[in-house]
Amino acid sequence: MNASLGPLVITLAIQALVSMASFTLPVLAPEAARSIGSSASLVGLYVALIYLAAMISSLLSGRWIPRLGAIRVSQICLLSAAAGLAFAAIGTLPTMAISAVLLGAGYGPVTPASSHILARTTPANRMGFMFSLKQTGVPLGGVLAGALVPSLVNGFGWQGAVLVVGLACVVMAGIAQTTRADLDSDRRPDFRATNNPFQPLALIFAHPSIRNLALCSFVFGAMQLCLTTYLVTYLTHSYGLALVTAGLVLSLAQGGGMVGRLLWGWVGDRWLAPRRLLPLLAMAMALSSLATAAFTPSWPLAIVVLVSIFFGATAIGWNGIYLAEVARLAPAGSAGQYTGGTLFFTYFGVVAGPPTFALLTESSGSLALGYGVFGALLLVIGLMLARIAMRPVAPN
Prior knowledge:
Blueprint lengths: L4 H23 L1 H8 L6 H26 L1 H21 L2 H15 L2 H12 L5 H9 L1 H41 L2 H4 L15 H7 L2 H32 L3 H28 L3 H20 L7 H15 L3 H11 L5 H30 L2 H23 L7
Keywords: Membrane, Transmembrane, Transmembrane helix
Pfam families: MFS_1
GO molecular function: transmembrane transporter activity
């Protein structure tokens, strides 16, 4: 492996395993709920707890990465995810709550840690694609959970399946140890962070370019979760698709997101600077959301599928190019701190977006209003980013 490929492989693998761990309980929620004697609908609260914990841990990760090293932090994340799954296997509501918090604590710092590593090891002209490729680990984790966890449940029961995924996280932490000497060579054991846990937010607000991106990522993250959370329900209730067909459309949208992450990274490296590409992605997201709001049973299914795939390519595909731009703008050696701070806003959008969407739809009785309002908001965000992109580039 060359100097940039090795770090990419290890960060991608870590990202995929932690992502798979976070998707495991939602995948087997019906089995777990039946065993515990609770409603499977509580999985929504479980996921919200994961992202609330991720908001906090991503913010704090900037204090840990310089001192411990990004690989060590990643190992702790994997072990935290494994511990979260072990608590889930106990099978009570209190331990499920502990499980979600531990999974979120492990999920939050993984991206800042990997950004710290890739910012050091990736040539500037390949950062967009490499960051985007690494970020495919998130949907890849979802694919792995969907493909493997049901079979593990059949073979070992739901609790056994949870423990197997947890064991995989432990094994990955051991594998990561083989790279620590090289990738954590920049750690500073004597690093002392301030007592203010909100320091990363102060750093971001002192850097206008990163501040603007962070605030926009709140809406991007909200839109991403609203697409994946409500699309199947919208297509079945408003467009009239069968559940299986609507699920297939969502899968195609997720696939579009994976392809989009790679495509936008490639475009950002070769054709269009990320600061100019992100406004276009925001406006494309907006148009996709507005088109989705306009779906009626008279629309041909092929058009609905194409819009959904493009919606996924933009609303799911923006992350890598965004993180590459944050890492580029951050002062040398501080990509992890700035990424952790910006992800606080991203995860906040993930937590706040679906409930806001639900309130909009409850008030009107139509999911179309939610997609329409979010689409209009993203159009404004895209125009704002386009105006910012026209300004001269400020030096770091």
